Amino acid sequence: MNLSVANIHFQQGKKALLRDITFSLEKGERVALIGPNGCGKSTLLRLICGLNKPTSGNITLNDIAVQHYPRRTLAQHLSFVQQKATTEELVKAEDAVALGRTPWIKAFEKWGTAHQSHVDHALEKVSMTHKRDQHWHTLSGGEQQRLHIARALAQNTPFIVMDEPTNHLDIKQQMVVLSLIENIQRTMLVAVHDLNHALRFDRIIAMKEGRVIAQGKPAELISEAFILDVFDVHSRIIHSPDHPPHIQLLN
Amino acid sequence: MPFKLLNGVMTRHPFLFVIFTAAVLLVATTMGVAIGETSIDFATVIQAVANGAFGADYPIHPIDQGVIWNYRLTRTLVAACCGAALAVTGLVLQSLLRNALADPYLLGISAGASTGAVMVTIAGVGIGVLSMSFGALLGAMLAFGFVMLLSALASKRRSANISTQIILAGIAGSQLFNALTAFVIARSANAEQARGIMFWLLGNLSGARWQEVTVAVPVLIAGLALVIWHARALDAFLFGSDAAASIGISVRRVQVILIFGTAMMTAVMVSMVGAIGFVGLVIPHAARYIFGSSHLILAPACAVIGALFLIFCDIGSRIVIPGQVLPIGVVTALIGAPCFALVLIRGQKQ
């Protein structure tokens, strides 16, 4: 599994949302995408997932352009956890996760034990097995987000893309979701809005105003000057022997 | 909960359930034929049907035979088909567009049908060549095409939510064609014609003969098969069209196939019996409360409930006021609204 993004340009109307974006992901790599609101993170993820087409440039997955994949085949290679997807319908937690099997099941195929075991494992992984029969609207935001991740796991793709999965969650749930992401052994590209969360990834790609402005290992990339440059915020990085480094934001 | 039990039986023993629903539909149809201004007992009904269908030789008065075979049976069968078709169409549109208020007439079909009908009957377009039904069918298709064109143009410009574009285009199209209908009526209809059109718009099953049955049954079967074939794709729309796309659904293709297919099915039904309201909006909601969210179960369930609902509404329309047939649309709303209110309240308590 490798993803390559080459010279991507994306325009909507007269406004260029993404300019000349180039990077690649190796198999098994876990990459955080950071940058201020409106810098084009979500737009870029949508292009990678084939939900929009780039104006120019190429996105290839295993050396085949994403647009050339049939939808179903693409969904067997890549799953997408959206920022906030919800439903008004009366649906059980387990059924929401079972949707992840859609690209693997035929129109009239019977729901078999193989599909069920993928769903069971996914629920187990996000610790939602005990709430599998509860209805969607009775669950908290954090639990719903864990179910979306479980849905992506049940989809059993080598590559998972997530758009700010810890958004709208309280701090406890943020930690739960984050350590969950750390335990998933897949290639991952995750848009992250909290810099401290980004420190826990293998690599960081930083965006600003529709461009990639820097990328590298968290320890090498993140510095007070860098944060001031990208986010326009003063900060202090606290190193401690017992804990991972922590970014403190200053006024 | 009886619903839970029903649901359990349905998923574990689908075969048993098919037999059960077939039996219920058979009983309902028999009731639809037997009950009316003059009641006919069940035995006579069954004998008359045997006479008509298999050439059996039961001694039945020719008038009874005619009323049962050529009038009440066809009317009941067409009612069942329309109920099923409208309910399934409502289900599909609500699921695809993620909108609880979507109904079969959202895309301008009833407005177009009424315009087509008044063009033929009142303005005299194509008189002698076009029947009112055919005019209504043409009008419905024209309005649907207009709405689709409008939503395609609207969504080309912006990458905004296509569902919203379709709904807004539907409202614009419906308003336009309703205005055309009103214009034709205001310009040249006399009071009698205006009344006739109003009755037709509220639904009228009295014209249903074997010719209508032979159209309605295959159209319903084709439409229902199309929807069941795409049942898993419809499930995938649970979290919206982007989520559907990312689990492998060709969103645009599925939307085009299902919206076009169900729209044609609805257009055919409306051209025969008028725009029967309420069924397509309410039955899918009721079915969801009972059967959950899997479309493999919901689609046939909506068809069966819709068919039963319209058969019983038709019976109601014939016996509520002696010597007079109420427009079926009035009955569907009068019976359906309180039933739906009950379902809503019970659903809240769960």
Describe the structure.
The complex is a heterodimer of chains A (251) and B (350). With 251 residues, chain A is an alpha/beta fold. Helices cover 30% and strands 27% of the residues of chain A. Chain A has helices at residues 41-48, 71-77, 93-98, 113-125, 141-154, 171-182, 195-198, 218-221, 224-231; strands spanning 3-12, 15-25, 30-34, 56-61, 64-65, 78-81, 159-163, 187-191, 203-208, 211-216, 235-238, 246-249. Chain A has a six-stranded mixed β-sheet, sandwiched between helices. In chain A, α4 (113-125) packs across α5 (141-154). The longest helix of chain A is centred in the middle third of the chain and has 14 residues, at 141-154. Chain B has 350 residues and is an all-alpha fold. Chain B has a single domain, classed as Orthogonal Bundle (ABC transporter involved in vitamin B12 uptake, BtuC), CATH 1.10.3470.10. In chain B, α4 packs antiparallel against α12 (251-273) and α13 (279-291) runs parallel beside α15. The longest helix of chain B is centred in the N-terminal third of the chain and has 36 residues, at 62-97. Chain B is globular, with a radius of gyration of 21 Å. Classes of the chains: A alpha/beta (251), B mainly alpha (350). Chain A binds chain B through residues 12, 46, 49-52, 70-76, 78-80, 82, 85-92, 95-96, 99-100, 102-103, 105, 107-108, 151, 155, and chain B through 100, 159, 229-232, 235-236, 238-240, 242-243, 245-250, 288-289, 292-294, 347.
